[in-house]
Design brief:
By secondary structure, the chain is mainly alpha-helical. Helix content is 60%, strand content 11%. Bound molecules: zinc ion. InterPro entries: IrrE_HExxH (IPR010359).
Amino acid sequence: MDLDKIAELFGVRVAETKDLHPDHHGMYIHHRRLILLRAGLDGWNYRSIFAHELAHAFYRDEVHGDTRAEKRANQWAAQLLISKDEYRAAELLHGPHPGAIAHELGVTPDVVKTWCDIFMRATIR
Ligand SMILES: [Zn+2]
């Protein structure tokens, strides 16, 4: 999934910066249609945080730190980053280990855990 293309579709610019609050690796500024990502992130964090901020752009979130908005963004990002087929292939290779699956899929373990939460809830219902 080409995240830059999605940003372009959303009309959102992306910039890397070293001037983010230490607690945040990324930020979406709605009134400027701008995603800020911490400069120097590794590929796994970069994709995971980029997708999370794209979710805020998708939902037009203007408030930062709202628990429900953060959860919604995490779920949207997980579904954007991981397809069922990709997950199954990674699980076949590595077994049910979120860390190894995350490494294989190019995302952080948190994204895999979020994805599993969604998927398991979907199969239980
Ligand atoms: Zn967020």
